[in-house]
Amino acid sequence: MPYRRFLAFNAAGGLVWASGFTMLGYAAGASYRTVEKVAGRASEIILAVVVVAVIALVIRRRRKERDTPGADPSATSDQPPRASAPEESGTQ
User: What's the pTM?
Assistant: First the structure.
């Protein structure tokens, strides 16, 4: 991912996250401790879901590479194959 695109998504995500928690704190008022507990639990659940999803994707990718006959595990699909140098025959 190009850095500018990453930066835009990262900034947008940070803005949404910060705005959401600010509004949540404002709406909670005096019951901030309750919101803190709920938000903490929700963050833990989201983190667990993300970890499980990443593990599932890694396992899926490894199985796909293993089950594909003749596939080079170090090659990636988004890069074109490299051209090899022409062989020299020794005669000119």
Answer: 0.45
